[in-house]
């Protein structure tokens, strides 16, 4: 795997997440957003999605609400809920 694989994947995932945001009409968890993201390659480490989330937030595309929602991916622990900004 090339050293820049992570950077390439993050760029592709960010672009795919931006496209997916266009299809979302209600508040969502990042897990729910990921279900709409169309990308061929999965990250080598699932934590890379955190970088995508941070990039979306920094770009002003999403904002976090004051409440959470249980997520299937983490034994139904509470996860932030987001909306399009």
Tell me about this structure:
The chain is of the alpha+beta class and 85 residues long. Helix 1 crosses helix 3. The mean pLDDT is 92. Strands 1-2 form a two-stranded antiparallel sheet. The longest helix has 17 residues. It is built from 3 helices and 2 strands; from the N terminus they run H-H-H-E-E. A hairpin with a 5-residue loop joins strand 1 and strand 2.
Condensed summary:
The protein has 85 residues and is an alpha+beta fold.
Features:
85 residues; alpha+beta; two-stranded antiparallel ribbon; 3 helices
Fold topology:
Elements: H1 5-21, H2 30-36, H3 48-58, E1 62-71, E2 77-84
Helix pairs in contact: 1-3
The biggest sheet, with number of strands, parallel, antiparallel or mixed sense and barrel status, is:
2 strands, antiparallel
**What are the low-pLDDT stretches, counting only 5+ consecutive residues below 50?**
none
Which strand order does the major sheet show?
1-2
Strand content: 15-25%
Shape: globular
Briefly note the structural class of the backbone: alpha+beta
Series of H and E elements = HHHEE
Number of helices: 3
Instruction: Look at the structure and give the mean pLDDT.
Output: 92
Q: Return Rg in Å.
A: 13 Å
Q: How many β strands by DSSP?
A: 2
Q: In percent, how helical is the residue content?
A: 40-55%
Distance between the termini: 35 Å
């Amino acid at each position: 795997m090339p050293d820049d694989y992570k950077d390439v994947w993050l760029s592709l995932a960010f672009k795919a997440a931006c496209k997916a945001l266009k299809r979302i009409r209600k508040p969502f968890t990042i897990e729910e957003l990921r279900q709409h993201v169309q990308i061929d390659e999965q990250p080598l480490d699932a934590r890379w999605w955190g970088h995508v989330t941070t990039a979306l937030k920094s770009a002003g595309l999403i904002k976090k609400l004051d409440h959470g929602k249980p997520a299937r991916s983490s034994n139904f622990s509470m996860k932030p809920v987001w909306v399009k900004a």
